[in-house]
Amino acid sequence: AMGCIHSLACSKSRVKRENIVVYELSATIDHCPTLIEESSPIVLRYKTPYFKASARVVMPPIPRNETWVVGWIQACTQMEFYNTYGDVGMSSWELPQLREGLVRAISDSDGVSYPWYGNTTETVTIVGPTSKPSRFIVSMNDNFYPSVTWAVPVSKSNTPLLTNIKRDQSFTTWLVALNTTSKEKILLHTIKWRMRVDIVVDPTLPLGSRARLVGRMHQDQPRVLTRMEPIPPNSMGKPNANDAQVLMWRPRRGPPLVVIPPNHP
Q1: What CA–CA distance (Å, rounded) separates 74 from 174?
Q2: CA gap 214, 216 in Å, rounded
Q3: Model confidence, pTM
Q4: Which of 77, 100, 158, 224 has CA atoms 20 to 30 A from the CA of 190?
Q5: Of 213, 171, 208, residue with least CA distance to 33
Q6: Can you tell me the distance from the alpha carbon of 97 to that of 81, in angstroms, rounded to the nearest whole number?
Q7: In the prediction, which pLDDT does 10 show?
Q8: Residue in 71, 142, 167 with CA at minimum distance from that of residue 113
Q9: Which InterPro entries does this UniProt record tie to the protein (predicted)?
Q10: 233-256: per-residue pLDDT in tens?
Q11: 190, 30, 165, 112 alpha-carbon torsion, rounded to 10°
Q12: What are the sequence ranges of the domains in the chain?
């Protein structure tokens, strides 16, 4: 223990919440309506505006035996996604664990970079030792661009019967500094946002003129919380929302059917 008095390796990490500076934090949803695409005779596609978050961060000097990652972690906290086919029934994308209240949130990672939302602009890794502060920007964006079949997804028929699309999804997004060795997490900011889409369809009209956006034309802007919200433990790992979701067919009469099962064991 002799030469250890001045060694950083012996002390607990010097990186503290109060030593990390975050400025120019921004969280917005583009001020434009959801776009509807009717070019395909098989599916209607729609493209929502983008949620965008970015922050400039200054990290203090890092001790030599530490590596820190700073970036965005996102979880889906609520999802309703119904496609109605007249009086025949509806298909819905569902997160069973969330639907049944077994979890409060599900990771919205890219499925590779757990727990991070992505690994390009979304994160920065700092490997110690660094002698001076590190300055960088981390940013992310997210939107929906799904396809919904014109015809009932479980039928052999191609007759367009789609009459309505309703989607309402909520997310919590955290800016986090994570010590990869000790797994210590420092939460820097919490953002909440929601995306809502309501489209009515007249399947009897010609392709290209069937669907229109109703209700809100623009989304509510994200909220940056004044106090931190903890990250539910299961939101840090598998499965992510894309792998956990199930496409159900819920007919007006008869039992529901799983059309597309979850993508994880």
Answers
A1: 6
A2: 6
A3: 0.92
A4: 100
A5: 213
A6: 15
A7: 47
A8: 71
A9: FAM78
A10: 999 999 999 999 999 999 999 999
A11: -50
A12: 17-260
